[in-house]
Design brief:
nine-stranded parallel β-sheet; Rossmann fold; eleven-stranded mixed β-sheet; TIM Barrel
Length: 679
């Protein structure tokens, strides 16, 4: 459990504003100019030193902290706090040339060269020793500096390595997880294709093979890789905590990142931070952004989180480097706050003159202060001071959607009936909830479900016995569950659960699947549901009932007249099972029924494109209204609400607000309980 003194909101009250700062790319004169401009923009926190290892240690053991001393002092003199990073994400060239074993090896067996970042093997004893050494030096030198607000360990951990060092660690990890080689053979099903191991020396990383790798082996490797990186984080975190026990320690996560199980990572740090770059060319990127924000908020039980990086405008990682249109950066920033962020930060403060990201936008663009981006940055910094009282408030949800990294890894494994995208399936389930302004937490099937009226499970291909039992207890006690096809198929070792499909859910769904029947990408089938028809695609389950009632049937194709959706009353609760992927219209109709059954209501009814999100605190409730659409919208708002961002919206008449495109309103009202919560 996080120590209360590690709460970043206690050290930095209000909504934190700032971004990455790379002073080693600039002269001292620029540092002074930057500090003054940061004050003008309302910057309160900057991340320093993320990629500064070669500047801090240009040769082995030659530490040069003088420039950082001066930067820390200048920032403090200007009232700016520092999120000081350990620089392990980009080892200096000397480390790689003097100790080539620190370089990672890719799956094909080739060494990765220097010249970018993340070029390290997380198993390398030399890399770990050197990264811990400079982390300790930073902690000892700056632990008492008045500018220090928090420690930032590394950056966007994402390295995978297939070298012999990692192979040895993998075997140790497998022995610890499975207990013996005999049990490993059983869990991996190695009698298939004569893969049975007779000695631990035969067990290796999943390198290229003839055909496909054993999926259970690949799943364990992904678990191992996440845990290996987490071990690197823990080692540096423990150094910082030992020397500066009062300073929060964290690292930064990434949007929809498959390389690390953030559920496990979040438990090891004092706050959650996210780097996110929604694609300006994607008209619905704000919906997947909302999901990622809800996920970050949920990872530590609803605690406020930090948006550590976003773009002020153009994002160089996308193929078409579109700028954010006027007001959209502000809109995205307020959306993160609405979903629980107490920090809005950017990559980066000043746009770089050189390197791989020189055309990535910044708070201070190449063209300086005579730009629209700069003015929007300054305006946002000033505006956030009006929301000080919102910091520390939380969200309350009656609905939870399930997201699980291990399920993601296994679901997209080899030799399945058809290729499925976990991100796409989850997004298809989250989007109609978002469009209805249904407050949503994001959980795993291991989490406490007792406070929710409805659990939405987009796909749970992997289902352990303990998870199935908890889900059953939740439903029998009055919970509602919506679960989609290709769920409950395998156990945690990727072995098919016996008894027929879906083996882990047979007692829950009140039916069984005789056969999976995926559809070609261009083929659709018709589905009739309570007197109206819609279409479906991607997948069909050949369903038969065993206690459930049929909620929808196929009206064409070879399964014409057969069940497409089941509804099963179990104990005091209800399970709805989708045997196909409904169209958007069909999903809407079906979800209307499920939400009504579960007695779940929207935060507020709004026109299409207008998002309503609420945060709750002891002084009141804060209703955020965000217009993601291209047209103005009129919204009927609760009576007696005070608008905190004066001048941004106009009251048309009575309790009606007109919200222009990209506009935001934040309404404060008396504390509103979540009436539809089971808690």
């Amino acid at each position: 459990m996080t120590n209360p003194i590690h709460n970043f909101t206690a050290r930095l009250p209000g909504i934190v504003y700032g971004g990455d700062y790379n002073p080693d790319q600039w002269t001292r004169e620029t540092w002074l100019e930057d500090a003054a401009l940061m004050r003008q923009a309302g910057v309160r926190l900057v991340s320093v030193g993320v990629f500064s290892w070669s500047s801090l240690e240009p040769a082995d053991g030659q530490l040069e902290f003088g420039w950082l001393d001066e930067v820390m002092d200048i920032l403090h003199e200007h009232g700016i706090s520092v999120n000081l990073s350990t620089p392990n994400a980009a080892p200096p060239p000397w480390l790689a040339t003097e100790h080539p074993e620190v370089l990672p090896t890719n799956r094909e067996g080739r060494k990765i060269a220097i010249g970018s970042r993340a070029h390290f093997c997380p198993s390398s004893a030399v890399y770990r020793e050197r990264s811990q050494k400079i982390a300790r030096a930073l902690a000892e030198r700056y632990g008492n500096h008045p500018a220090l607000a928090m420690w930032h360990i590394g950056n966007e951990y994402h390295t995978q390595c297939f070298c012999d060092q990692c192979g040895a660690r993998f075997r140790d990890w497998l022995l610890d997880r499975h207990g013996s080689l005999e049990v490993l053979n059983e869990h991996w099903g190695t009698t298939f294709w004569s893969q049975r191991y007779s000695d631990w020396s035969q067990v290796d990383l999943p390198k290229p093979v003839m055909g496909n790798v054993n999926p259970a082996r690949e799943l364990d490797f992904k678990r191992f890789s996440s845990e290996l990186l987490l071990d690197c984080f823990r080692e540096e975190r423990d150094i910082m905590r030992a020397i500066t026990p009062e300073i929060p320690v964290l690292t930064n996560f990434m949007r929809f990142f498959p390389g690390a199980d953030y559920t496990r990572w979040a438990a090891e740090e004092d706050a959650v931070a996210l780097d996110i770059y929604p694609n300006p060319a994607d008209a619905e990127s704000h919906i997947t952004a909302a999901f990622n924000y809800d996920l970050m908020r949920s990872l530590k039980g609803g605690q406020p989180w930090l948006m550590m990086e976003q773009a002020s405008s153009a994002v160089s990682q996308w193929p078409l480097n579109l700028v954010k249109k006027p007001g959209r950066m502000r809109l995205g920033s307020f959306q993160a706050i609405a979903h629980g962020a107490d920090a809005v930060m950017f990559f980066q403060w000043r746009a770089s003159r050189y390197g791989q990201e020189k055309f990535h936008s910044a708070m201070l663009p190449h063209s300086g202060t005579d730009t629209r981006t700069w003015q929007e940055v300054v305006d946002l910094g000033q505006e956030l001071t009006q929301l000080e009282e919102i910091a520390g408030t939380t969200a309350e949800a009656a609905v939870a959607i399930v997201w699980d990294w291990e399920n993601w890894w296994a679901m997209e494994g080899v030799a399945h009936p058809t290729k499925l995208s976990y991100v796409d399936i989850v997004t298809r389930h989250f989007t109609p909830l978002w469009r209805r302004n249904i407050a949503t937490d994001v959980i795993t099937l291991d989490a406490d479900m007792s406070g929710y009226r409805l659990i939405v499970i987009p796909n749970s291909y992997v289902l352990s016995e303990a998870q199935a039992e908890q889900l059953s207890a939740y439903v029998r006690s009055g919970g509602h569950v919506l679960i989609s096809f290709f769920s409950g198929v395998v156990d945690e070792h990727d072995r098919v659960i016996p008894g027929g499909y879906p083996g882990g859910l047979l007692s829950l769904i009140g039916g069984r699947v005789r056969e999976f029947s995926p559809l070609p990408s261009d083929e659709r089938v018709r589905v009739e549901m309570r007197g109206s028809e819609t279409d479906a695609g991607l997948w069909q389950d050949d369903l038969v009932t065993d206690g459930a009632t049929v909620l929808a049937t196929y009206t064409d194709g070879y399964l014409e007249g057969e069940a497409a959706i089941l509804r099963h009353e179990l104990g005091d609760g209800v399970v709805t099972y989708l045997g196909t992927q409904l169209s958007e219209t069909g999903m809407d109709r079906m979800l209307d029924t499920v939400l009504a059954d579960a007695q779940v209501a929207a935060v507020l009814e709004t026109p299409a494109g207008v998002e309503a999100v609420e945060r709750h605190g002891p002084e009141g409730s804060y209703l955020f209204l965000l217009n993601h659409g291209q047209h103005s919208a009129e919204i009927t708002v609760p009576p007696g609400a005070a608008e905190l961002l004066s001048g941004r919206v106009a009251v048309v008449a009575g309790d009606t607000l007109t919200l222009e495109p990209a506009a935001v309103a934040v309404l404060k009202r008396d504390r509103q309980p979540v009436a539809d919560s089971r808690a």
